Amino acid sequence: MKKLGVAVIGTGFWGKNHARIYKELASTExxxxxxxxxxxxxxxxxxFGVKAYTSSSRMxxxxxxxxxxxxxxxxxxxxxxxxxxxxxxxVLVEKPMATNTKQAEKLLETAEKNGxxxxxxxLMRFIPGMQHIREAVENKKIGELxxxxxxxxxxxxxxxxxxxxVKDTAIHDxxxxxxxxxxxxxxxxxxxxxxxxxxxxxxxxxMLTYEDGKSAFIESNWLTPYKTRTxxxxxxxxxxxxDYITQELWIESAKENLxxxxxxxxxxxxxxxxxxxxxxxxxxxxITGADGLKALQIAEAALQSSAKNRAIKLRQ
Length: 316
Known about the structure:
Layout: E1 4-9, H1 13-24, E2 28-34, H2 38-48, E3 51-53, H3 56-59, E4 67-70, H4 77-86, E5 90-94, H5 101-114, E6 118-121, H6 128-138, E7 145-153, H7 165-181, E8 187-193, E9 203-209, E10 215-221, E11 228-235, E12 238-243, E13 249-253, E14 257-258, H8 267-281, H9 289-308, E15 312-313
């Protein structure tokens, strides 16, 4: 079977992981990497035995490349993703996908016009326990969904420089809430601010409300001394708790407490394998460009809510 030719644009910490996994997968062939930092580009390219570029425009002329991962600074994601789509490449763009919704809409339009796959890096969906939660909610195995609470807190990440906590980390949980509920919230109310870092918000509490009365709460910050990544889903008959880091899942009901065992799997590897399979098999990805756009719209509404100190009604 012919391998899918892939490349990575942006080889910082996360982009380097993309390159490593593409090199490991049996169905992909890492052809090239690109980074504006020539020294880093060469170092990563040498590590994986591929060609290095400092210009994505030049790299995208390489016909061996069929798909790219875009892992640049958040403010450069849309520019590089659009360039790749216009060059006829399938694209996985890391969250938050774009600086604003107008840029994200342009990506969707270009991908559709050119018949290309566009997916967004929301890898929480690929954790096995998350799939179990989604299925339990959908089939009412925990009764009616009442609310969901996510906590994503840690110390200040050194890699951050051009985006705040809402679009960098809380956006993961915004997508998770859409995924497990299989619907969009109707309003968002948020409090966000800067305690230590003045350029962008470093903490946020976000509340999402839904048509039928259920709600979701998201706590995200870069202030706590240790890293916590958890999701609690409350149903009328049971509660499910997921630790994103250990991938442990607990199910608590009136009758019993269960802890289903899933082998630990690297979510990024599952995500990139899925991306490659969708291209090869011409099937719709689990996460579409439209999912990325929706999450970004909600994140922007959260920031607007905090600035205006009122709930923001979301466009349906």
